[in-house]
Amino acid sequence: MKIAFLKDIMLQDPHVSIVIPTYNRAATLKEALECVYAQSYKGSKEVIVIDDNSTDNTVELIGTEFPDVCFVHLNKNVGPSAARNIGISKAKGDFIAFLDSDDLWDLDYLSSQLSVFGDKKGIYPKKVSVSSTIEWNTVSGRRSEYDQKPNLKRYRSPIHHLFSKGSFVFSPSSIVLPRKFIEDAGVFNESLRFGEDTELYIRLLLSGYKFVYESQTHSIRRKHFQDQAISPENLEKRRLNRIETAEKYYDLVSSKFEVDSMSEIRTQINLYFAREFLANWNLLKWLSLHVSSFSFKAIRVSTSALTKDMSLLLKMILKLLFQGLTKSNYSVG
């Protein structure tokens, strides 16, 4: 049994359900919940927190400071996708919004995101509302703003972008969609450790959903430390997972959307990850992916990628040299 205990708050027909998975994030969870309750949106909403077997004071926080939250505590760690799916299964709202427990929203986020669906009760178009996002590096303090849209200059369709580069939506904290998406496209794939959001977006597009981009409000994505997903082992798992996902859906996708051939997409995936390996100084893997991806049919793509990678490598070397000189000067001083 996954659920250790459940504190359910019965609401009469909430308009939107906010699903928040969390694991050992009590401090940031409090801030996330505060931003939810401070929303300018005046419609009915329910807040569902799925505690993925936290060992910190998450249980006490919810019990003492947020008694109106529907709270599910799991007796074993199941991961973010399964936790979100449990939250989805509890949701009663016409719409579902996701918020990771270390992310935040602008005060007008819900009002703005929900406005794209209109106000006709019971009639909900097949849309996914996507906000802009701010990535906040809590170590350096740097904030970077991004419009979360597919690159249609580089890729032939949004789904082509998802195949070759992965998700153009940085976090599920940036999307709102009708609850009927569950029956139309299904929920998060719990068998995937990486790319589960990308795979869901592919199924949504195949089910006729359109992504609508709302640039006036933001989700705020906090990054606290080095991302584990960029370790060599995880980079390779992500690369293989992306190829597997593209191969799984290619026949269905290519019959409905504009995409390159599967061999070209495989090359695009490999060259994308070659740069990721290069950025982490894994030169052997970088070189092997370039060699294995080279073909005369895709010579323009391969040559362009190699040129950009060599430019990146030069910048990385110069940065190291500059850091070395700076340290040397400090030592001499």
UniProtKB/TrEMBL annotation:
InterPro entries per record: Glyco_trans_2-like (IPR001173), Glycosyltransf_2 (IPR050834), Nucleotide-diphossugar_trans (IPR029044)
Domain Glycosyltransferase 2-like intervals: 17-155
Pfam families (UniProt xref): Glycos_transf_2 (PF00535)
Protein name: Glycosyltransferase 2-like domain-containing protein
Organism: Phormidium tenue NIES-30
